[in-house]
Amino acid sequence: MRKGLSSVNLVALTFGFAFLYLPIVLLVIYSFNASQLVTVWGGFSTRWYVSLFHNEQLLEAAWVTVRVGILSATVATVLGTLAAVTLVRMGRFPGRTLFSGMVYAPLVMPEVITGLSMLLLFVAIGLDRGFFTLALAHITFSMCFVAVVVQSRLISFDQSLEEAALDLGCPPFKTFIVITLPIILPAIVSGWMLAFTLSIDDLVISQFTTGPGATTLPMRIYSSVRLGVKPEINAVCTILIAIVTTGVIIASIATKRAENERAKAERAAAAGR
Amino acid sequence: MTDVLTPDPEAPRAIAQAPDASPADVGGGRWKRAALIAVPYVWLLVLFLAPFFIVLKISLSDTVIAQPPYQPVLDLANGWRGVVDWWNGLDFENYQILFEDELYVASYLSSLKIATISTLLTLAIAYPMAYAMARAPKSIRPTLLMAVILPFWTSLLIRVYAWIGILNPEGLLNQFLLWTGIIHEPLYIMNTETAVYIGIVYSYLPFMVLPLYSSLEKLDETLLEAAADLGSPPWRSFWQITVPLSLPGVVAGCFLVFIPACGEFVIPDLLGGSETLMIGKTLYNEFFLNRDWPVSSAIAVLLLLVLVVPIAIYNNIQAKELGGKA
């Protein structure tokens, strides 16, 4: 396709991005509203941020959310990477079709179904609902996202590097650790971040699988949103948006840099041959 | 039910047959390889697949006021008799309820309608965006891509919440329109189906733009140049070259939006009104407000049956997409 933007293209981009960002920008702006009424501008103020830090319930929910997020993202990254390696490098094995189906289906499965089915499993095996079941549920859906991210990296890199190591007598496990792992590391890191974000953002699956004492931030936000828009909620949302945005931008810059350096090193190695 | 999770066998076979010098195959031993496969496999079997069979089982049970709130409960302490009693206690009564009560049938139909219309609306907004992104100078493309992905990382709940402040009768949209003098009475969009459409289109837009962009970006420019040299006007090249070649992206994007939108709960719950019926919301209310586990399980089973075909097609595309490059 001939490159260069026509005025129609510019209109499409402007309209599209305005649609994507305007609501979020307005939400952030109104979190600094001095007025109690959310939609009437009463001057600039940070009072809602101050009142957040005195809201015990919200702080406790935030702590639960972060703990579940870190635990589930870490386990999901290990399992998701194993699943990706299985799909790309294990060739044929019995039940492969079922396995790839189980990896891709959670990506589009409506959350109410996943949530309900996991809850019924926990009840059936007599597991007390709470922090632990919440983490189990989060691991299960986020490992599939990690698997897809790592899988696309595994199939795009030069396999001859692995083959060379194996030909030189390096044992398979060591080859994986020394050659494969460093190459797919950026994908593993972004997989972890994706899993962490999915976990701290999740509402529906958490509602089903949690129990007393394990209320997460989205659950708290949801129950107060049902009662109406409040400036304090705008402030919590703004903080969450800020954390996620900074994390994503830093990670993408770091990944880009790591990839560039690797490409440079590979070119240098090729030139030296 | 396993069909839901089993994509077309053709696609993964293609990957399986791809020549591979897998490090685990060379030496290492079969046991290590089997153990490696078994860890994620067993995890998904136990925590993803097995629960569906439990849902199916409970959908055939009766509602009781007890803990757990359904019966029969499989009692292995009674040996074979326990199994027989349990089996005899299962019936299709809950499904009968679903088909007899208009609420459920209407919820299913309305979900399909809302999901279809919002998928088409999303496509209409996403296609020009993705097209423009693919034509943008190479240097700014990663930034544009990032800008599309970023909202996806922000919680769905937060993005839906943002719209409440905009769409309320005294919200920002009405304030703006009243101020400009375009309208003289506030618009009542909040708590209507229109608000649900806006919410779904907004929330799922990145899912549509990304696959469209990746198929449009791969498009071979020389095809369009050749068409132009042969005297084809741009609109004709667009319809006969660009559109057909971007179809895989269109199909993938539509499924990525349609399937989750069908079972959406947060958007109809927060933006829709009491007359906006969607099956995800009905299931949630049946479970949390009425505490009727067997009926909510039956709703889930029927929703899965409706989505089996789209999910299988989607899985097939995924496996091909990721397997094709291997």
Would you kindly provide a written description of the structure presented here, covering whatever features stand out?
The complex is a heterodimer of chains A (273) and B (326). Chain A has 273 residues and is mostly helical. Chain A has a single domain, classed as MetI-like (MetI-like fold), CATH 1.10.3720.10. Chain A is built from eleven helices and no strands. In chain A, α3 packs parallel to α6 (131-156). The longest helix of chain A is centred in the last third of the chain and has 42 residues, at 231-272. The mean pLDDT of chain A is 87. Chain B is an all-alpha fold. Chain B has a domain at 100-291: MetI-like (MetI-like fold). In chain B, 73% of the residues lie in helices and 1% in strands. Chain B contains 16 helices and two strands. A two-stranded antiparallel sheet of chain B has the order 1-2. In chain B, a hairpin with a 6-residue loop joins β1 (62-63) and β2. In chain B, α13 packs antiparallel against α16. The longest helix of chain B is centred in the middle third of the chain and has 34 residues, at 102-135. Chain B starts with a helix and ends with a helix. Mean pLDDT of chain B is 83; it is low at 1-27. At the A-B interface, α1, α3, α4, α5 and α6 of A face α1, α2, α3, α6 and α7 of B. Chain A: Pfam families: BPD_transp_1. Chain A: It is a multi-pass membrane protein. Chain A: This is ABC transporter permease subunit. Chain A: One of its GO terms (biological process) is transmembrane transport. Chain A: It is found in: Cell membrane.
